[in-house]
Every structure is written in structure tokens, then in C-alpha cells.
Amino acid sequence: MLEAARLGEAARGRTAPNPNVGCLIVKDGEVVGRGATAPGGRPHAEAVALADAGTKAKGATLYTTLEPCAHASERGPTCSTLIPEAGIARVVIGIKDPDPRTAGQGIKLLKAAGIEVKTGVGREFSKDSMSGYLSRVERGRPRITLKLALSIDGKIALPSGESKWITGEDARAHVHLERASSDMILVGRGTYMADQPKLDVRLPGLEQWSPRRALLTRGEAVKGWEILSSPKDVYRLHDVNDLLVEGGSATATAFLAADLVDRILIYRAPILVGEGKSSVGYIGLDAIADAHGRWKAGDGSRLGIDRLEVYERVRN
Question: Where are the transmembrane segments (predicted)?
Fold first, then answer.
């Protein structure tokens, strides 16, 4: 299931509004089929893995991070129909699909076809890999990641506004990987006017996965950019699973004050700026006690000369 989740994670940012599912087919201790949801959402991961396995699928066990779909679509057959037709003997599922069009119906169809079904295996792996899809279905909005490039003392720029480059090449390359794993990337009007950013993916082989661009502004529309007039407009992004917010300070503050940030990526450079521009302004907290318990530290890493710090919002 961990391997299935990794396959699904690799498809993040390319399948919305469909989930980025990962699937493995195993027979006699050997992996005979691998699949992930294809770009654009079809074919589904199970269909890809079944095609990869071919006749070896008969009598095998299929591992999938999400319950196989049960609702009809003009874009292809349901996976809960394809699986019995291929002769799969057992299905192991990470999590049930919260989409009301499936929501347990896929499991019922598999069991009715005589297939052994087990759910909840690798639940956390599966949830983590599809956190954007789950956020959109359950919360009505994308999972929102805030990216910040900071000095040791938490500054994003000199007093003049100069910020190129706070971090090194390895950290910037990692940001491009995050962009390639996002459906949409957003900046504020100030960043747009100051930097005219392209916000594309410039890693060899991944250029085609540049996300859609959005601008947080109450001003005029800009060609090639989608407009959000306030952070709350994320609730109308029905075809976006993962949204990456890249700044600047006013935009970061607006999303944090609205409590819409689910994950923070801090790229920390080993430099001191002193007087300069802070990363975040007032976000509505009036006591230190209110700040505790809201965030938990995730796995960080070394990126060349810089450090990546990951923080997840704690939500009930």
C-alpha cells in the first residue's frame, strides 16, 4: 500500500478534479501490474494497472489507495466492473471514497461479484497521498500549501524589497517540484506587479506540468491569470485539488488570517537580513496561548545549503 500511495503521489497535480489514486496488482508474491490515475483523470489507476497486468490479473490481489469507482461515466467504465471482469480474487483498499456517487457502492459491487475485500490497510499513506482531493470533497475547497522562502530571522526581503535570491538552487528546484504537483499556483497583485512572475515549472522533463496561475486581487483581470478577489474564493475552485500560494507577505497574511492554510513549506536560508520585510503580518492572534497547538512539525530535509521545514495545520 505504501508503494501504491507513492504511485498516486507522483500523479498529484495532474488528475483534478479526479483523485490521484495509486494501484498495484500482486500475484504469487510478485508485482504484475502498476498504475496511477492518468493526466486529466482518465483512465483510472485500477484500469491502468489491470492493463499492465493483462492475463496475470486473474486470481491476483489488487491494492488501491481509494475505493474503486461505482458511478457511470461517459469517459470510461467503472473500476468496480473492470476488476471482476479481469478475474481479480481480492481487493485491498486504503480508504473509502467520500464522493457520494461511490461512497461504499464500489465495495458492495465487488463483494457481490464474489471478491474478497479488505479496507483500511495503509489508511494514513492513502489519505496523505490524496489530501488535496479529500480536502476538496470534504471541505469544499483545495488543500492549500503556503510556500515561504525566509532568512534565519524570518525575513522575505530587504527593506528595498530585494529578495533574489534568499535561497539556493536546490531549494528553488524543490519549489518547482511543488509547482509540478499543484493544480494551481497563486500570488498577490503586489508580487505580480513587482516581479511579473511566470510561475512555471522549469525542471527538465516537467515543463508541461506548469500549473494554472491565479492572482489575488480586487483589481482588473489579467490575461492568462484566474482572479480570486478574496481567499474565500477558493470555495469556488471545484476543479482544483491542490493550490500552492507563493506570496508575498500580504497574500500569506490574508490566507493565514482566514485559516485556510493546511500546510506551510518554509525554505530557510542560512543568512541574516536584520531590518527587512517580514513574512507575515497580523493574523488575528492576541495571545501567545492562542498560537499553540495549531501547527505540528512534519518531516523536514536538507536542500543544499538550505533547510526545508514542513508544518501541518492541526484540525479536528
Answer: none
Written as one letter, the residue type at 133 is Y
Side-chain half-sphere exposure of 183, counting CA atoms within 13 A: 28
CA distance 25 to 54: 10
d(Cα 65, Cα 85) in Å, to the nearest integer? 20
Terminal Cα distance for the chain, rounded: 26
Question: Which distant-in-sequence residues (6+ apart) come within 8 Å of 2 by Cβ?
Answer: 122, 125
Closest CA to 187 of 212, 156, 213, 161: 213
- The grid coordinates listed for 237 are 475552485
Query: Does the predicted model carry a pTM greater than 0.85?
Result: yes
State the pLDDT at residue 94.
96
Amino acid at residue number 271: I
What gap in Å lies between CA 258 and CA 248, rounded to an integer?
16
Q: State the virtual CA torsion across 67, 73, 76, 78 in degrees, nearest 10.
A: 30
pLDDT tens column, 108-158: 999 999 999 999 999 999 999 999 999 999 999 999 999 999 898 888 877
The β-bridge partners of 267 are 149, 308
